[in-house]
């Protein structure tokens, strides 16, 4: 072999070796870039947030066993208890007082004892009543104390208790017995013997304190579809106030615009030919109004959010941390999601952020619809937050958390995967600028947000509750409504109260009003309330005195009293309204957080209404009051069934106390009027049906805190924008090779129904 051939072969060998080394180095780098990095750890001590934690199933069971052993009265499991018996209605955590918690969190004080709040229905007593006990210390209870009088100023009347599942079962049995008295009418109107009809409750239940008389609306039931869209025109009024179920009775019947004393009278009118009957066919599954089954073949998969190196947030126990944020989260079985001790960069911004109530108030020309004012807290906003569907309700790779509750049973229940936490890329810059003059550069930051979400299904409606935390130090709270509309049978002048959305279906107008509690602690507990808005002043032009100029100026005002800080619903509010600290930032402005409300609320119930005080929080889009331990919530689960003598009336919180340099609470109402229309079939969509509010830093920092984000992007015309070191966006192509390993799809949400 000649020398030239040897050199050629040697060169080829070296080239091959070099290529293999490159491949190996590339393969070496790829796994390293795809390795999951541990989320950054925050400075909050592990375990501190447990002072706010929901009860564990074991703790709930311990409370039940303690009460059964110590109360000295017979207790029946609430799932089968009659009104004339005693039962444990619910057990939830008793969050300690704020002063005690802050001594523990901030001053090294003792950890507050862990306690539970137990609600009991005593039907088997000389004076039936509702009693609330604080039980502790957990996990091994040794004491209980009756806090009913302390909390409510007196005993709680028994008729205020929420309706239990067992009570609904007994009501349905009564209605079914009554329907058998009108067999020919049912066959003619509904192709039914009554067994394929389902009932939907209304509320409140009567017209005065002590009433427990409820209209129930009847619908055709078709498996796999929403029966809420198939009313048959029949509604019944049931009196279920007596302690003895055998004494319950049907008070009235409504059909197609007419009222009857009972189903027997209805049958007589029909047989006599004196009744106008709308003959409905039993709906078939394939053609029923409101089916959610897909109508088209499956297409290609949609976009999937990618986390190349795993979650950038951390969830430990009941606390989540993310890029400077720290939040303790939980779920009240009645009022739903609640957050505590919200900190940014180690500083507490919010002590408590919690949902209080959701009101749905309807109009109709049928009795059930026109009398409905649902207060969803009494049904269970948290209790009915079921398992979330991975990849649709939340991103597929989100973190899913179980929630536990004990309501209407002696055994704790678990809603698996019913709360989700995820980082969301909104596909929108949080900030950006492209410079096209003097020097040429680009700087920006993607808007990625930590989201805590849960979804409650409250009969027909589904509420999506979101709490979002931004790199700018802002907190965003948002609720979307979806699910099925509630409907009435279309007759007469039904369109005075909504739109016709089916052959015999009236989509009834209604409003959704949602109430939140926000206990802000801006740079400490002592805050004041400041408003800012714009005005114009006409002045002589300083450089041309014969002319005038309209100059905007800023009008600042400190609000001194609670009455000044109660802003009526649908009345313009100052555009800037802030909780301000006595301490200034670097530029000598008070460190503040601004409240910005986004709402399209309907009209509040007239104050002359006999039940208005029970929802008097709805008078105000915002009310700021001094914080008091004896005013923990703006409403009560007992308001639904006795709105005429409300257990808690929020209007009483506002009594013109001083709000300067005090521990303050913001009570915020958001909502919208909904007039159902054809496009609400089968379900109301979330587009345009979202409301909420922001808590935004306003001179709290010395500059936008997001400038410290490691996600920031900056490059100039003098740099190679394709270089990964100069521009992190150039690294994305290699990061995209790190496709996530998706766990198999699983859903167990039907197990606890």
UniProtKB/TrEMBL annotation:
Protein name per its UniProtKB record: Amine oxidase
Residues at the catalytic site: 376 (proton acceptor), 461 (schiff-base intermediate with substrate)
Gene name of this polypeptide: Aoc3
PANTHER family linked: COPPER AMINE OXIDASE, RETINA-SPECIFIC COPPER AMINE OXIDASE
Enzyme class label: oxidoreductase
Copper amine oxidase N3-terminal domain mapped to chain residues: 161-258
Alphabetized UniProt keyword annotations: Copper, Metal-binding, Oxidoreductase, TPQ
UniProt GO molecular function: copper ion binding; primary methylamine oxidase activity; quinone binding
Gene source species: Bombycilla garrulus
A biological process term (GO) from this entry: amine metabolic process
């Amino acid at each position: 072999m000649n020398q030239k051939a040897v050199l050629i072969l040697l060169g080829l060998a070296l080239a091959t070796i070099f290529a293999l080394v490159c491949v190996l180095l590339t393969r070496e780098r790829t796994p390293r870039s795809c390795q999951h990095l541990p989320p950054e750890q925050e400075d909050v001590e592990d375990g501190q947030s447990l002072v706010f934690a929901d009860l564990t199933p074991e703790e709930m069971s311990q409370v039940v066993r303690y009460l059964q052993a110590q109360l000295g009265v017979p207790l029946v499991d609430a799932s089968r208890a009659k009104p004339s018996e005693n039962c444990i209605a619910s057990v939830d955590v008793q969050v300690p007082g704020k002063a005690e918690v802050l001594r523990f969190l901030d001053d090294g004080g003792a950890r507050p004892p862990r306690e539970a709040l137990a609600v009991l229905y005593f039907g088997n007593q000389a004076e039936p009543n509702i009693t609330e006990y604080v039980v502790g210390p957990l996990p091994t209870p040794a004491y209980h104390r009756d806090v009913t009088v302390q909390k409510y100023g007196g005993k709680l009347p028994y008729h205020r208790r929420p309706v239990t599942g067992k009570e609904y079962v007994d009501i349905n049995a009564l209605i079914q017995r009554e329907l058998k008295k009108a067999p020919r009418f049912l066959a003619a109107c509904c192709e039914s013997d009554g067994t394929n009809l389902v009932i939907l409750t209304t509320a409140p239940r009567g017209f005065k304190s002590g009433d427990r008389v409820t209209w129930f609306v009847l619908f055709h039931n078709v498996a796999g579809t929403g029966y809420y869209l198939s009313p048959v025109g029949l509604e019944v009024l049931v009196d279920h106030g007596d302690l003895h179920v055998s004494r319950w009775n049907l008070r009235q019947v409504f059909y197609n615009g007419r009222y009857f004393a009972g189903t027997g009278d209805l049958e007589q009118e029909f047989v006599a030919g004196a009744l106008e009957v709308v003959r409905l066919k039993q709906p078939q599954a394939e053609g029923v109004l409101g089916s959610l089954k897909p109508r088209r073949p499956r297409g290609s998969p949609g976009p999937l959010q990618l986390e190349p190196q795993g979650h950038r947030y951390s969830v430990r126990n009941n606390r989540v941390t993310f890029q400077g944020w720290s939040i303790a989260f939980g779920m009240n079985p009645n009022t739903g999601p609640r957050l505590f001790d919200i900190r940014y960069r180690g500083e507490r911004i919010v002590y408590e952020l919690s949902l209080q109530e959701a009101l749905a108030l309807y109009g109709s020309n049928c009795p059930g619809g026109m009398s409905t004012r649902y207060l969803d807290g009494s049904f269970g906003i948290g209790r009915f937050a079921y398992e979330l569907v991975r990849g649709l309700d939340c991103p597929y790779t989100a973190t899913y958390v179980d929630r536990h509750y004990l309501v209407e049973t002696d055994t704790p229940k678990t809603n698996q995967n019913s709360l989700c936490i995820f980082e969301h890329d909104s596909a929108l810059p949080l900030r950006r600028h492209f410079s096209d003059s003097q020097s040429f550069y680009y700087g920006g930051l993607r808007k990625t947000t930590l989201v805590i979400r849960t979804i409650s299904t409250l009969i027909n409606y589904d509420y999506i509750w979101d709490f979002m935390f931004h790199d700018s130090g802002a907190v965003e709270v948002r609720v979307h409504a979806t699910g099925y509309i509630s409907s009435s049978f279309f007759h007469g002048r039904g369109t005075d109260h909504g739109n016709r959305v089916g052959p015999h279906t009236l989509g009834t107008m209604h409003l959704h009003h949602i109430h939140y509690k926000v206990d802000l602690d801006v740079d400490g507990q002592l805050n004041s309330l400041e408003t800012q808005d714009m005005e114009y002043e006409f002045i002589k032009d300083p450089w041309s005195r014969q002319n005038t100029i309209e100059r905007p100026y800023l009008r600042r005002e400190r609000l001194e009293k609670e009455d000044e800080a109660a802003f009526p619903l649908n009345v313009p509010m100052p555009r800037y309204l802030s909780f301000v600290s006595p301490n200034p930032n670097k530029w000598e402005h008070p460190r503040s957080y601004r409240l910005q409300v986004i709402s399209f609320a309907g009209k509040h119930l007239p104050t002359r209404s006999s039940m208005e005080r029970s929802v008097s929080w709805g008078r105000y889009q915002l009310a700021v009051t001094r914080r008091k331990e004896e005013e923990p919530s703006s409403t009560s689960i007992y308001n639904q069934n006795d709105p005429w003598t409300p257990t808690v009336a929020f209007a009483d919180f506002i009594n013109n106390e001083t709000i300067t340099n005090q521990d303050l609470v913001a009570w915020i109402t958001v909502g919208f009027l909904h007039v159902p229309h054809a496009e609400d079939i089968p379900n109301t969509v979330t587009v345009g049906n979202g409301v909420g509010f922001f808590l935004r830093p306003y001179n709290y920092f010395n500059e936008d805190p997001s400038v410290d984000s490691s996600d920031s992007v900056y490059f100039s015309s003098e740099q190679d924008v394709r270089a990964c070191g100069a521009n992190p966006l150039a690294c994305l192509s290699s990061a995209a090779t790190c496709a996530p390993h998706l766990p198999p799809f699983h859903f167990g949400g039907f197990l606890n129904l």
